[in-house]
Amino acid sequence: MGREVLVLNCDYEPLNVCNMRRAVILVYKGKADILHTAADEELPDALYAPSQAEGPPSVVKLRSQIRRPMPELKVSRRSVFARDNYTCQYCGVHGKDMTIDHVRPRRHGGDMSWENLVTCCKRCNTRKADKFLEKSGMRLIRAPKRPRYTPYIGITQYVASSKNQLWRNYLPACLDLMGAEQSKILA
Q1: Residue 74 has what pLDDT?
Q2: Which is it for the CA torsion 171, 173, 179, 184, positive or negative?
Q3: What pLDDT shows up at residue 170?
Q4: What is the pLDDT of residue 54?
Q5: Mean pLDDT by groups of 10 residues along the chain of 187 residues
Q6: What is the pLDDT of residue 124?
Q7: What string of DSSP letters covers 132-186?
Q8: Closest by alpha carbon to 34, among 69, 58, 16, 66?
């Protein structure tokens, strides 16, 4: 039961990604309904309820509305990596061994903002060093900007969830979050 399940509010808004055990408990207690089962994803496991046999849940919808304040999207290493899809914004290399680069160096007044931080490979980060873009002779593939959509489930979980074909139907504004180029990568 180590699989993840997408939890939707009663208005189909994504709220959370929880583990299979938690989702089964929500369904068993009558707090949620199963919208899609893991059988839709072709998994052999089955859960047996007294009345019927269903596959393990993949997407559940809560029966009552949960009111949550709109979360504030904070700048962090993980959220910058997720926004840029672990792709170097100078050379386009994709991988997990990335660093953060300040477009305008901190020594020259650069701040820790969405517009000044980009994902960068170690080679490009060393090449750019502590110089301005113009002086380093490098160009950005895509200008950094604050994501327009703030998902309740967290930006890193949102990007990971958008790779699940079944969950994409319930994840709004995929293009607004990452840009058209990166959503093509996920497709």
Answers
A1: 82
A2: positive
A3: 77
A4: 66
A5: 81 86 93 84 45 72 86 83 91 92 93 94 93 92 82 61 73 50 40
A6: 94
A7: -HHHHT---SS-----S---TT-HHHHHHHTTSTTGGGG---HHHHH-HHHHHHH
A8: 58
Distance CA 125, CA 100 (A): 8
Give the strand pairing for 4-8 and 57-62.
Answer: parallel
pLDDT at residue 16 in the model: 82
Calpha distance 112→158 (Å, rounded): 22
Domains of the chain: 1-71+151-187 (no CATH), 77-136 (1.10.30.50)
pLDDT of residue 178: 44
DSSP bridge partners of 119: 100
* Tokens 């949960």 found at: 66
The model carries a pTM of 0.55
Buried/exposed 91-113: b ≥16 CB within 10 Å, e otherwise: eebeeeebbbbbbebeeeebeee
Strand partners, 60: 7, 34
Q: Of 19, 58, 22, whose CA–CA distance to 41 is shortest? A: 58
Distance CA 87, CA 119 (A): 6
Non-local (6+) Cβ contacts of 103 within 8 A are 110, 115, 116, 117, 118, 133, 140, 144
* Tokens linked to 23: 């989702």
- Say if CB 3 and CB 38 are below 8 A apart: yes
